[in-house]
Amino acid sequence: MAFSFRQATILGGVLLTIFLLALFTFQDFGIAHLLGLQRITVSYLYITRSLFWLVPLLLWQFSARIERQSMLIWPEINYPFWTSVLSLVVLTTAIAYSLLDAQLTIGLALHKKESSSLLKVMTGYFRTNPFLLVYTALTAGVTEELIFRGYLLPRLNLLLRSPFLAIISSSLIFGLAHFRYGTIMNVVGPFFIGLGLAFYYWKYRSIKIAVIFHVLWDLMATYLATRQN
């Protein structure tokens, strides 16, 4: 009986996560629409990114009050400095190569280069607002790792009873959460990033390394995008 109740609360947490992601992510019917934020502006980006911090906060409250356990149910392992640096280098190399292969494959399949109009608009704002760029990367790195790897992955592992299925499913949800950007690569890219980070967190139990990687990756990718014409 206790086991089934625990499973039910964990399933509830997973469904709550998906609901919150839809509410705080999608523009057409989410919290941005309810607040009357229709156009992508600097104010829109600041407000929506600030609101997104509510998602891990709500999941933390759900964990404490409903699940009666910590939000991060996998004990955190601390590694020496140089081991952490090596982990970041390996993660960066592996994910960069997987994204390059995915991009080439998609380009060959579509016979054209994809382009996201939403990312173009955002990149224009980042180019003239460096603090917004940093705030966006910090928000994505911290909140998304706490949500997808810290909260969602261990609970999917408990529900599915398979690390492989948990890693795949959490990465798929991570990819679909980027659907609003409008291209296949905008979903496939995060899916592969999610795979790398989910495997790392499952294997090595360090959410800090996942967060640092994610922040640095987004900073680098966004900055490079602002340097392009």
Describe this structure in words.
With 229 residues, the protein is mainly alpha-helical. It has one domain (2-227). Helices cover 79% and strands 0% of the residues. The chain is built from 10 helices and no strands. The chain has helices at residues 2-25, 31-34, 42-52, 54-67, 81-110, 117-128, 130-160, 163-176, 185-204, 207-227. α3 (42-52) packs parallel to α7 (130-160), α7 packs antiparallel against α8 and α7 (130-160) crosses α9. The radius of gyration is 18 Å and the shape is globular. The N and C termini lie far apart (61 Å).
Secondary structure: elements and pairs:
Blueprint: H1 2-25, H2 31-34, H3 42-52, H4 54-67, H5 81-110, H6 117-128, H7 130-160, H8 163-176, H9 185-204, H10 207-227
Helix pairs in contact: 1-4, 1-7, 3-7, 5-9, 5-10, 6-7, 6-10, 7-8, 7-9, 7-10, 8-9
Name a few traits of the molecule.
229 residues, mainly alpha
Task: State the separation between the terminal residues, measured CA to CA.
Answer: 61 Å
- Regions with pLDDT < 50 over 5+ consecutive residues? none
Structural class, please?
Answer: mainly alpha
Question: Strand content of the residues, in percent?
Answer: under 5%
Tell me the series of helices and strands, N- to C-terminal. Answer: HHHHHHHHHH
Shape: globular
Secondary structure tally, helices: 10
Summarize model confidence as the mean pLDDT. Answer: 92
In short:
The protein has 229 residues and is mostly helical. Helices cover 79% and strands 0% of the residues.
